[in-house]
Amino acid sequence: MRVDLFVIDGQNSFCDPSGALYVEGADKEAVLVANMIKRLRTTRPKGHKISKIHASLDSHPLNDCSHNVVWIDEQGQIAPPFTIVSHADVVSHKWRPRFATGFWQGKQVSPREWALEYTKSLEKEGRAPLCLWPVHCQIASPGQCGYPPLMEAYDDWAEATGGWIDFITKGHWPWTEHYSALRADVIDPTVIATQLNAPVIEDADGADLIGWCGWAGSHCLRWTALDAINNFGTGENAFLRKSVFFEDASAAVPNPPGGPDFAQWRRDFLAEVEQRGAQIMKTTEFLT
């Protein structure tokens, strides 16, 4: 039996308590995932092993469209972390980006032109609203690196199996958010890095069982899994029936003061996939 595991954004920025965007509890949950990988790294008598690990790596430049440091208000003050920016906010000049002019969807645009088009597209496509995060997972910084307990488990698995971790980088195109490891929140048809990563979905569709974990369950895990499920290969129900989501390895981003209820987003996501046919369990119960 082929068993695949998706570990979404198991990185220092999210899992280390001192990380720039620490997800409360992710450090403990990452250890649970690491222990599960070590437990299932080789075939046991009458048992199963993890056949393949897909590990996403959030990767951003400093001047990323979702970083608060590149947005200012009408007085020129930098936006606080966790600010939600709607299309109406851009229209009214409540918030405006201050990064350089660039190319978006094949044409040169000013930051304001991009912001107007981008926020409108987010709302039209039903993706998460634009949230301005503290600088995190900056490319080539310690925050982008894998969380040590997970990296140790990856190495342990690789040495035991002779296999390779399928590392999936995402988020390095600065003009769109990229919660999902499989596609950007708004796809730019001129930029391959933003488009649907169909080979990953097609590969995972060949597994008999797929485990899902990562941080945060309210955002990157949620959108990665939904993008995979909604672009299934052998059929939605078949893909869902072989998917297992770990409730003890999917913590949500802490709720911002006065902002969205991210914890509820996580609960709604797990309820949705379970209702559609997936299993929900703990890491310690998987393949025991």
Written overview of the protein:
- The protein is α/β, with parallel strands linked by helices and 288 residues long.
- It has two domains: 3-60 and 138-285, 3-Layer(aba) Sandwich (Rossmann fold); 68-132, no CATH class.
- It is built from nine helices and twelve strands.
- The strands form four sheets. The chain has a six-stranded parallel β-sheet, with helices on both faces. Strands 3-5 form a two-stranded antiparallel sheet. It has a two-stranded antiparallel sheet with strand order 4-8.
- Strand 11, helix 9 and strand 12 form a beta-alpha-beta unit.
- Helix 2 runs parallel beside helix 5 (148-161).
- It is globular, with a radius of gyration of 19 Å.
- It starts with a strand and ends in a 7-residue tail after the last strand.
- 43% of the residues are buried.
- The mean pLDDT is 94.
Distinctive features:
288 residues; two-stranded antiparallel ribbon; 2 domains; Rossmann fold; alpha/beta
Number of strands: 12
User: What is the strand arrangement across the widest sheet?
Assistant: 9-2-1-10-11-12
Class per helix and strand makeup: alpha/beta
Could you give a short account of the major beta sheet? Answer: 6 strands, parallel
Helix content: 25-40%
In the predicted model, the low-confidence regions spanning at least 5 consecutive residues are none
Radius of gyration: 19 Å
Number of discrete helical segments: 9
Distance between the first and last residues' Cα: 14 Å
Shape: globular
- The sequence of SSEs as H and E is EHHEEEHEEEHEHEHEHHEHE
Please give the CATH class of the largest domain: Alpha Beta
Give the strand content.
15-25%
What would the average pLDDT be, to the nearest integer? 94
* CATH fold assignment of the largest domain: Rossmann fold
Total individual domains: 2
